UniProtKB/TrEMBL annotation:
PANTHER family: GTP-BINDING PROTEIN ALPHA SUBUNIT, GUANINE NUCLEOTIDE-BINDING PROTEIN SUBUNIT ALPHA HOMOLOG
Gene3D superfamilies for this protein: GI Alpha 1, domain 2-like, P-loop containing nucleotide triphosphate hydrolases
InterPro entries hit by this protein: Gprotein_alpha_su, GproteinA_insert, P-loop_NTPase
Keyword GTP-binding attached: yes
Organism: Catenaria anguillulae PL171
Protein name: Guanine nucleotide binding protein, alpha subunit
One GO MF term: GTPase activity
Cellular component, GO annotation: cytoplasm; heterotrimeric G-protein complex
GO biological process: adenylate cyclase-modulating G protein-coupled receptor signaling pathway
Binding residue positions for GTP: 37-42, 171-172, 196-202, 290-293, 349
SMART domains named among the record's database cross-references: G_alpha (SM00275)
UniProt keyword terms in alphabetical order: GTP-binding, Magnesium, Metal-binding, Nucleotide-binding, Transducer
Residues that coordinate or bind Mg(2+): S41, T202
Length: 377
């Protein structure tokens, strides 16, 4: 290679690197934060569904799709790497089996016990096979659906399901049980609606790339569990925007790591730490007060907000709007800089139609603020 050719190659490489740096600088980096089971990963699934028409990372032929979610650190374990339809089917069945085990373990604690001999017999059979089923989630026995239906016909089981918040039953458990015949079918291929119900804990930091209204987004989802939140810090320094997700329906659910407080108390404390962190002064900040569907159900059943939040002074009928206003005010009071703009939205993350409207507004705000920051407005 001549000196002239070498200079040309070097110049081409420099140009490509410069273009790549420019693309990276123009990319909007969106960070999803929230405590465990807040619904932040479901919000990310919705973004993939709305903008790419799918949630899975691989198509039926195994091809990696453009919107695939991958682990930042290269980890390819289930939950950290690529998820195809079969993998999601396994997750949904595991969620179903876990829910059954929790319900069966709490029938005597949160109800009067089985009211029929058939349900008691079905429960005994299920407890004997749930362990092995977890090792082979893709091949459930054909009589499993009949056992589940027998169990669900017992009033005490329904009472136990209704008290699920007391023993950490998944919010999606009633729907999973209702759809058990479909989920346990040998030919089951999860729909997007099913995948939105799936609970797969975020085991590492993942990155999803999407193009929204012509703008490139890198979206980061992090582990919200206790002991894992120190991994959030490096992302504070370079993110363009943050969406903090808090499940306000968890106002009555004890925190597993500290049962003296609720999951919502924990979420409030984490929010206070995040929003007041010095590195959070610049990014656009959005707060999703999530799981309003579950909140409404709890209020309709008469579960008292005041029992865990004594300073609640709303009406005895606990009107939905006033409860939402109360929780929004609790979060607003945690913000030390009263001039800090935080965009608050009430969300139902598993409802595509509801979250689509909210996300459109939020994405528009983030894009506008990003353009203003770059002096392009």
């Amino acid at each position: 290679m001549s000196a002239r050719q070498a200079r040309k190659v070097s110049a081409d490489i420099d140009r490509q690197l410069k273009e790549e740096r420019k693309r990276e600088e123009e990319c909007i980096r969106l960070l999803f934060l929230g405590t465990a089971e807040s619904g932040k990963s479901t919000c990310l699934k919705q973004m993939k569904l709305i903008h790419n028409g799918n949630i899975v990372d691989k198509d039926q032929k195994g091809k990696v799709l453009e919107s695939a979610t991958a682990a930042v650190n290269g980890d390819t374990r289930l939950g950290a790497g690529m998820m195809d339809a079969q993998a999601w089917a396994g997750v949904l069945r595991t969620n179903l089996f876990d829910s059954l085990e929790k319900i069966l373990g709490n029938v005597g604690r949160h109800s009067t016990g089985f009211q029929s001999a058939a349900a008691s017999s079905a429960a005994e059979t299920l407890l004997g096979i749930l362990g092995p089923l977890r090792d082979n989630v893709l091949a459930p026995p054909p009589d499993l659906v009949d056992l589940i239906n027998t169990l669900l016909a017992d009033p005490s089981v329904q009472t136990t399901i209704g008290n699920g918040a007391k023993y950490y039953l998944l919010d999606s458990a009633p729907r999973l049980l209702q759809d058990s015949a479909t989920i346990l079918s040998p030919t089951f291929v999860p729909t997007n609606e099913h995948i939105l119900l799936a609970r797969l804990p975020t085991s590492t930091i993942t990155e999803t790339r999407l193009t929204i209204d012509g703008f490139r987004f890198k979206i980061y989802d992090v582990n919200g569990a206790h002991g894992k939140r120190q991994a959030w810090m490096p992302f504070f320094d370079f993110c363009t925007a943050v969406i903090y997700v808090s499940a306000i329906s968890q106002f009555d659910q004890p925190l597993p790591e500290d049962p003296t407080i609720t999951r919502l108390h924990d979420s409030l404390m984490v929010f206070e730490t995040v929003i007041n962190h010095p590195l959070m002064a610049k990014p656009a900040f959005v707060l999703f007060l999530n799981k309003i569907d579950v909140l409404k159900q709890k209020l309709d059943r008469g579960i008292q907000v005041k029992s865990t939040f004594p300073d609640y002074t709303g009406s005895a009928t606990q009107e939905y709007e006033e409860v939402c206003t109360y929780f929004a005010r609790k979060f607003a009071l945690a913000i030390e800089d009263k001039k800090r703009k935080v965009y608050i939205h009430f969300t139902w993350a598993t409802s595509t139609s509801q979250i689509k409207t909210v996300l459109k507004i939020v994405q528009g705000v983030i894009i506008k603020l990003n353009l203003a920051k770059a002096d392009l407005l």
